[in-house]
Amino acid sequence: MAEEFHRIRRLPPYVFAEVNQAKAKARAAAEDIVDLGMGNPDSPTPPHIVAKLIEAVQDPRTHRYSASKGIPGLRKALANYYERRFNVSLNPETEVVATLGSKEGLANLAAAITSPGDTILVPNPSYPIHQFGFIIAGASVRSVPHTPDEDMLRALERAVVHSVPKPTALIVNYPSNPTGLMADLDFYREIVAFAKKHEIYVLSDLAYAELYYGDRIPPSILEVPGAKDVAVEFTSMSKTYNMAGWRMGFAAGNPKLISALTRVKSYLDYGAFTPIQVAATAALNGPQDCIEDMRKLYRERRDVLVKGLKQAGWDVPVPDAGMFVWAPIPERFKHLGSVGFSKLLLEKSKVAVAPGIGFGEHGDTHVRIAMVENTQRIRQALRGIRSFLQGDNAAPIDADLEH
């Protein structure tokens, strides 16, 4: 028998595991670790959403199998959200499907549309499921620049010319996880034109649509006229409504892609628990003040984190969107790589971050810092980081930490 199954062989070791193991070891030794690694929201789900869940779960009829594609009211609520937020009209029956979070939706759509050996274009660095969803499905991934600019557009044209077979799909993710970069509508127009010209599908991940901090508001690719001819977009309740553990997301757009995803899902699941879908409907249709409260919370955390890092001598960019700071590794530690530096930071500062290589090889010069602790804990983390970067203990570097 083979030592490893074929699809497992195509997955590299989970690069976050080393840091997670070091974090677990430190906590087992009763060390207080500030965990800014995983993008796991720490705030509670708004009370009116929880109340609707409790109300719905009291009805025993909701305890039965649900609808894999999402209950009609939920799909209609998502269509209404797109109408008021993006001025985009969606048919809830043919252009919307509910998913068990955007991650599941991306992976199942990859399985639905991918043949072994297909070529998929994926920005590097990017959220791991963007490439590994297709790798698991048997595709080959070609990396393209992650910046929403002319460099990426030129690289896409080169990729079409030099890829065999011709690419079948392109992933875009703005606001980006991990970089926080945003795209504008002009960029999406170029992407749609490129996709139509070369007959390539576009999968847009818009999970961070509502996490923005300035005058620039993240658009949807579906706002581009004719985008639904080639594009499908994934959104999520996880960050917008602090519902990460509820596992509720959506795909919307191109009817052919939505139909393919719906068909695959019908064989794999019966949909989220009905009370969760009912509560998600209430979230989308109900008062939206909680979204602005969430923005203010993350904006405050961002400002405290970025200011503190700069005061510690770590110059990092200020993200305009998302819940992460994509921080370049300080010059004197670059030779460690992102895993080595993350382990060193954990040891010296008692702060856990995500190594950038977990988002692709081009992320190895950075670490991702998540704004998932309150400002008091963030300040605690900053004190540790400042002591490490400015203290004598920054000089010696253990050889076994090198990546």
Oligomer: single chain
- Output the helix-strand order: HHEHHEHEHEHEHEEEHHHEHEEEH
What Rg is obtained from the alpha carbons, in whole angstroms?
Answer: 21 Å
Strand content: 5-15%
Biggest β-sheet, characterized?
7 strands, mixed
Detailed description of the structure:
It is a single chain. This protein has 403 residues and is of the alpha/beta class. Helix content is 42%, strand content 13%. The chain has helices spanning 6-9, 17-28, 47-57, 72-86, 101-113, 128-136, 150-162, 185-198, 255-268, 274-285, 289-311, 337-349, 375-390; strands spanning 34-35, 96-99, 119-123, 140-144, 169-173, 201-205, 231-236, 249-253, 324-328, 351-352, 354-355, 366-370. The strands form 3 sheets. A 7-stranded mixed beta sheet has the order 2-8-7-6-5-3-4, with helices on both faces. Helix 5 packs parallel to helix 6. The longest helix has 23 residues, at 289-311. Residues 392-403 have low confidence and may be disordered.
Question: Summed up, what is this model?
Answer:
By secondary structure, this protein is α/β, with parallel strands linked by helices. The chain is built from 13 helices and twelve strands.
